[in-house]
UniProtKB/TrEMBL annotation:
Residues 163-183 are annotated as: Disordered. This is Ferritin-like domain-containing protein. Residues 174-183 have a biased composition (Polar residues). It comes from the Bacteria. InterPro entries: DUF892_YciF-like, Ferritin-like, Ferritin-like_SF, YciF. It comes from Mucilaginibacter straminoryzae. Pfam families: DUF892. Residues 57-84 form a coiled coil. Keywords: Coiled coil.
């Protein structure tokens, strides 16, 4: 009987350690996306300033405001799990932002081709965010953080909506206009 009890205790310790490691990963990923959102907000402002199309500029400005709300929502997520909101440098977002800056530098100011590049850069960032928020929502659910999962899902849906809007702009007017511009 003592052997079964000891085995059960060891299993509980292992489970607690695994959950603790998973929780640490969750918090680390939250810090990562918190940094990413703060820096993306600044990058979106630059993209909007460099956009030629009024439609694209408006979409970027709207998403920039939405991103500010997402930053506040991340603070709520941290609070819901009783953690202090803090950021950890996100190497992926830093790279995506640098790539976006290069695209703007390498395309002609005032051209629709620059808008195509801005959409490309913005969608790469959106796809990174969609992957991050999907993972975070799943981890929150696994860890039993219901409130955090709901908050993260709100942001995930906003990111998907923005990605869809950027695709509509590209397919509807921006890319065809850039094709004609090149002639």
């Amino acid at each position: 009987m003592a052997t079964k009890t000891k085995a059960k205790e060891e299993e509980n310790v292992a489970t607690d350690a695994n959950e603790s490691a998973l929780q640490e990963l969750f918090i680390d990923e939250l810090k990562d996306i918190y940094w990413a959102e703060q820096h993306l907000s600044k990058a979106l402002a630059k993209m909007a300033k460099n956009a030629t199309s009024d439609e694209l500029r408006q979409a970027l400005e709207t998403h920039m405001q939405e991103t500010e709300g997402q930053i506040e929502r991340l603070k709520q997520v941290f609070g819901s799990i009783e953690e202090k909101a803090s950021a950890k440098k996100c190497e992926a977002m830093e790279g995506l932002i640098k790539e976006g800056e290069e695209i703007m530098k390498d395309t002609e100011k005032g051209s629709i081709t620059r808008d195509v590049g801005i959409i490309s850069a913005a969608q790469k960032a959106e796809h990174y965010e969609i992957a991050s928020y999907g993972t975070l929502k799943t981890l929150a659910t696994t860890l039993g953080y219901t409130e955090a999962a709901e908050l993260l899902n709100q942001t995930l849906e906003e990111e998907k909506k923005t990605d869809g809007l950027l695709t509509q702009l590209a397919e509807g007017s921006i890319n065809p206009s850039a094709k004609n511009e090149a002639k």
